[in-house]
Specification:
The protein has about 300 residues and is of the alpha/beta class. It has 13 helices and seven strands. Mean pLDDT is about 85; it is low at about 75-100.
Length: about 300
């Protein structure tokens, strides 16, 4: 968790954060008093970056009594066992695939009686899986068309001054920046998807796999499937509230990143929709995608063959 950024947002929006803090406290107090009951007390959302995991997490936080839990981002430990930032000894940023893990300490501050919803981008390493298994018997894993992920990442990197690639993306042409993002997809995200797909195949019933496209096309149906996976029953009013948060038009990402990040909810979307990659990925980059992601796109049901 970036505490400096969080403090800046609190200063900018004190009333909104005060309201969130009050609700956060009431959720935990209500859970302690037995006012909120659910078949599960811990919901884990593990998402491919830019795959709607924040959206799913937000919807889980609208369940009665559920609170987000915050933790220090796990980068690497130094020789004294202390957490360091996501940079190596020379100050260079490490790849997300290297430092985006989880640790048992993340769960220590959550009250035992509380209802908790966590969101991670953690890869399917044996270490991460063993930690998740101790927290909850079932997890949600979100995917998205890797081509749309590439485009979404490009816009995020170009819009977020806090992102390590922001200075670079101010200098690169759109074509160069998309190529750079595609390399991240190749080296980090294709293995990420394959890792979690392998876990889902080995442990049927353990993971609820959610495709962003299905969630976007029929949000209520997909949400009902997620809740059924956990055995959670909700009133009709829950769906009305949640469905009202779906994006209906393009958003200014930079404004969202700076103004709409709250204690209980997060919003990092530029726009919703499916298949926007067709406007940006073509020619040599399209052929590259076929080589390194074609088989994965077919496996996830986004293409039937390589003729796209």
């Amino acid at each position: 968790m970036n505490y400096a950024k969080a403090v800046g947002r609190i200063v900018a929006h004190p009333a909104a954060y005060a309201a969130d803090a009050a609700r956060y406290i009431l959720n935990d107090v209500g859970s302690a008093l037995g006012l909120y009951r659910s078949p599960v007390k811990t919901i884990l959302v593990v998402g491919l970056p830019k795959s709607g995991s924040t959206w799913v997490h937000n919807m889980m936080l609208d369940l009665p009594g559920f609170n987000p839990r915050y933790y220090e981002a796990l980068y690497v430990k130094d020789e004294h066992g202390r957490w360091r930032s996501g940079k190596d000894a020379d100050g260079r940023f490490l790849n997300e695939y290297v430092y985006d893990n989880i640790d048992e300490s993340f769960f220590e501050s959550a009250p035992r009686w509380g209802h908790s919803a966590y969101k991670f981008h953690a890869r399917a390493s044996e270490r991460n899986i063993s930690i998740l298994e101790k927290q909850a018997p079932k997890w949600i894993v979100t995917y998205r068309d890797l081509r749309d992920v590439c485009v979404s990442r490009y816009f995020h990197f170009k819009s977020d001054p806090h992102n390590q690639f922001y200075p670079l993306y101010q200098q690169l042409s759109q074509e160069q920046a998309l190529q750079h993002t595609a390399e991240i997809i190749r080296n980090e995200f294709v293995p990420w998807v394959q890792g979690w797909r392998d876990v889902a195949k080995r442990q049927p019933g353990r993971i609820c796999e959610v495709r962003y496209e299905d969630l976007w096309t029929d949000t209520r149906k997909e949400l009902e499937r997620i809740l059924a996976f956990y055995g959670i029953e909700v009133p009709a009013s829950y769906f009305s509230k949640v469905l009202a948060t779906k994006l209906t038009e393009s958003q200014d990402l930079k404004t969202n990143l700076q103004s709409h990040a709250r204690l209980l909810r997060r919003n990092t979307a530029r726009k919703g929709g499916v298949g926007g990659w067709k406007e940006y990925i073509s020619g040599p980059l399209k052929e590259e995608f076929k080589k390194f992601a074609g088989a994965t796109l077919i496996e996830l049901g986004y293409e039937q063959d390589m003729n796209w």
